[in-house]
Amino acid sequence: MSKLPMRVLSIIPPMTQLNTPYPSTAYLTGFLRARGVDAVQEDLALALVLRLFSRQGLAEIRARAETQAARQRSAVVKFFLEHFERYQATVEPVIAFLQGRDTTIAHRIGSRAFLPEGPRFASLDVYVDPDDPTGGDPLAWAFGALGTQDRARHLATLYLNDLADVLRDAVDPRFEFVRYAESLAQSQPTFDPLASALAAPPNLVDDTLRALTLEALVQHAPRVVLLSVPFPGAVYAAFRIAQAVKAHDPAIVTVLGGGFVNTELRELAEPRVFDFFDYVTLDAGERPLLALLEHLDGRRSRQRLVRTFVREPASDGQPARVRYINFVEPDIAFAEVGTPTWDGLPIDRYLSVLDMLNPMHRLWSDGRWNKLTVAHGCYWKKCSFCDISLDYISRYDGASAATLVDRIDAIIVETGQSGFHFVDEAAPPKALKALAVELLERQRAISWWGNIRFEKSFTPEVCQLLADSGCIAVSGGLEVASDRLLKLMKKGVSVEQVARVTHGFAEAGILVHAYLMYGFPTQTVQDTVDALEYVRQLFEAGCIHSGFFHRFACTVHSPVGLHPEEYGVTLKPLPPTRFARNDVGFIDPTGTDHATLGVALNKALYNYMHGIGLDEDVRAWFGGRVPRTRVPRHFIARALR
Known about the structure:
Blueprint: E1 7-12, H1 24-34, E2 38-43, H2 44-52, H3 55-65, H4 75-82, H5 84-98, H6 106-110, H7 140-143, H8 148-170, H9 192-199, H10 204-220, E3 224-228, H11 235-248, E4 253-257, H12 259-264, E5 279-281, H13 286-296, E6 308-312, E7 321-325, H14 359-365, E8 370-372, E9 375-376, H15 391-394, E10 397-398, H16 401-415, E11 419-422, H17 429-441, E12 447-452, H18 460-469, E13 471-479, H19 483-488, H20 495-507, E14 511-518, H21 525-540, E15 546-551, H22 559-562, E16 570-571, E17 586-587, H23 594-609, H24 635-640
Parallel strand pairs: 1-2, 1-3, 3-4, 4-5, 8-11, 11-12, 12-13, 13-14, 14-15
Antiparallel strand pairs: 5-6, 6-7, 9-10, 16-17
Helix pairs in contact: 2-10, 3-5, 3-8, 5-8, 10-11, 16-17, 17-18, 18-20, 21-23
């Protein structure tokens, strides 16, 4: 493909992550450059946070907060105003510390006398035993005597969360560091709420984002702007950015894509979306973008666009309508998508935060990891709760270990960082084994972690091989620890198998995190109690170190959503949809009160992760009467023998 006379700017919209760039723009920019396209990228999510949480930003937040009537101010806003001078004096040192640019300030932060401590710090004010050998330090259990940097990072994160609460209470009630205004987009059948929000007078966050957008446009002078929205919490800001682009220069072509679009906008029929975006593309972006750029360059007709929504103008008395165009062409092979590039992103300005002390959650938010994919799609693609009908899971396509390590080498040279997060739905065991061998043969010293399935091909020998190659942690789905429900889920594993595989990883010194689920169709109270007993035994045996329970949500693209009768449930009717469509309610004839059970499950799990309550009857965690577990007391221990 010859070099096109246009510049393409890819933007990460707020909010995604604070500690590392979301990888979509890095992949697209690397791919487009390899094809001769003048491609650049910006992370406006990070830029927005850094602009707001600065001395000047806090002054502007204070000005907005002072316009509130005193009786309407929340406790966090009152505290902020009372201690504003301390906040303004400390905000930039805290940001520099979280960026790793000034580590010595950790001693002052850790002293608990440097930062103003708002409501988020209340969790640290616990009863102190006068005979406590730590001197009453409420964080001693987590950081001990030598954890100065981590202790300070946790306190600095609480401080940052206090400021985010101020911003939400005084400026923008939708603001969050991750789930920013997500209710405007998530499974939202109508565009009306989002349209109303976009038509409202801009607040400080909106004005700041607009200013950052205009700065990026002046700097790069793009002809095309790509906005990749991975989550519902990035949609509102993406539309605000597109709004600013169109107001600045309507001739700039705006394109919307990403995980949210691929999942929730597959039946897009709302013409108003195209007041902001000229094109909306589905699934892997490489082929649709090449087709679109050729079209914009006059070398391809509009009828030959690939997986792209456009708006047809009103004509002959008919209103404007949305049209989906898909000229079928093969996708770009995963081995040919090229190496992602972080060129243009301020990799030394990301914030390593430490808000949750769960060891796996820490990996997600602390440290600047290079995000890389081992393969496109999922090699298993059978789990009944998963969106296996969608391209990002159903189309499995890999690359050789040599190609993957070549990419790793190039990324390390560019970023200076040797930590990698493999962001696959489930990294394939055969590919991971080959990758480990290649890394060892080339004598590469990296650290890596990622998501897997706990399947039997992960033998103790393979686990040790992965550890030797740099694997530090794995996460995998145990879901509902019940062989009946695992079979119904088509998970392809049993509880015994999970025990042996996780034990192999743990013995190799690899942190093991389990994704856990409750509320799956036909799950009873008895199933839930039994599942918690399995989890207790897995913690007790040292098979898993970390976990998280989430409530099952039925989606329209999953086997449960597509064939509910096979899972014993009835779907609730959805309203007519012109915008987003994903989650769907269902009626389970078992009538189990999963919400109440979920509270007990999460309480138990929190304690298990801290080594507490592992010798207690699991019924003690539930508020009401529940049946005795049917799981033998030493089931996991026997499975390991």
